[in-house]
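Lesson 9: reading folded outputs for more than one chain in a single document. The general rule is that every protein is listed as its sequence immediately followed by its structure tokens, and records are never interleaved. Here is the first one.
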Amino acid sequence: MKYLLLLSLVVISIFAFSPGQLTPAYIVNHDKAAHAVTFFILSLLMRRSFPAMSMQKIIILLGVLTLAIETIQFLFANRGFSVEDILYDLLGVLLFVTISEGSRLLLKVFHK
């Protein structure tokens, strides 16, 4: 699972740091949805790769990652810093946390 996480980070970096829009519109029609889905998947991969890591630490690490990506993009021509991208990235993380923790609590309730 850690290799898949690493591969995902490499692919995200290629998309994030390439000049201009790398993905054609017919692949990703909704940029903000792609941000949320990407960070949902990153959250899942981090949780599966490091099961002992707390959700709080996952949120912090992915929050730092999204801030780093947007800050670095600010330095590139034809790219920029987007608070909206950060919010959608964090939305993906929070959706994962909500689903993960919610299902864990439901399992706990129904196992009694």
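And here is the second record, again sequence then tokens.
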Amino acid sequence: MAKLYIASSDSNVSARVCQDCGHIKLYEHSICHDCGSENTRLLPSAEEYAIHDHEGFAPFTVSEYSNIDELVHMADIIIGLDRSENSIQALSFLSGLYGDLDIIKDKIDDVQIFHGTRTDYA
């Protein structure tokens, strides 16, 4: 996402690029938020985007201004599924319980979907 900002020909803000780890952060700051380095460089950048087509992210909620880094994380989780109905149901269940994508990704293999009645389960 951040590389898209830096590559824009219509710059309207500035971004700092860490010369040590490559982390890019919009707006003014002097220290890299990832590695703590002070070896950063100020570059012209762009900051605006809008998402107009977001099919295929269910059960996650995507809006026009969703964070692109989070969308990439969501897509990685969805792509990692075996696409069985159980996996999709497990993802839907976990996304209703947790807002943290890392937790959802870690727990997806732990969910077992039981197709039957409560009596059968007992």
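What the second record shows: The mean pLDDT is 82.
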